[in-house]
Amino acid sequence: MLVLAHAIDQLNRAVALVVRWLALVMVLVQFCIVIGRYVFGYNSIAAQESVLYMHATLFMLGAGFTLLVDKHVRVDVFFAKLSDTSKRRVDIFGHLFLLIPSMTALLYWSWPSVRNSWKILEGPISVGGIEAVFLLKSLIPAFCILVLLQSLSILVRMFHERTGE
């Protein structure tokens, strides 16, 4: 099981190594959009949507890595004061009863929309935009799967640390 957990960790690390560059590209594209608009009077809806697509990709595909390195949102006001055993219990409860069910529900309820979007190759959000909303919607199940896998990896490692196997 530890081998599987390590493989999941490596998957999320690899995804993060790729999508992290979108932050830089996103800033550069946004800079070009601003220069184009205010210096040259040129505007591109597709370029503006590309920033949205990059931001969505960076956030959605980077979420599993964020969970891996424990930089996700949590209420540290209470959590920081807990003992290690209590922290472990809170984490296990959070994974089993909050994160895994919510990701499973999101995956289940979003899938018909994603499937239909691919069926019709859903077009741009705005006239003149990127003709790939189906790719944007595909980030939802990818997000759910990466976060679910990382949650399982964390639970496996917690179990292994606890039992010492």
TrEMBL record:
Can you give the residue ranges of the Tripartite ATP-independent periplasmic transporters DctQ component domain?
Answer: 26-159
Protein localization: Cell inner membrane
Alphabetized, the UniProt keywords read: Cell inner membrane, Cell membrane, Membrane, Transmembrane, Transmembrane helix, Transport
Q: Which InterPro entries match?
A: DctQ, TRAP_DctQ
Q: Does the keyword Protein biosynthesis apply?
A: no
Q: How is the quaternary structure described?
A: The complex comprises the extracytoplasmic solute receptor protein and the two transmembrane proteins.
PANTHER family referenced in this protein's UniProt entry, alphabetically = 2,3-DIKETO-L-GULONATE TRAP TRANSPORTER SMALL PERMEASE PROTEIN YIAM, SLL1102 PROTEIN
What name does UniProt use for this protein? TRAP transporter small permease protein
This protein's species is: Seohaeicola saemankumensis
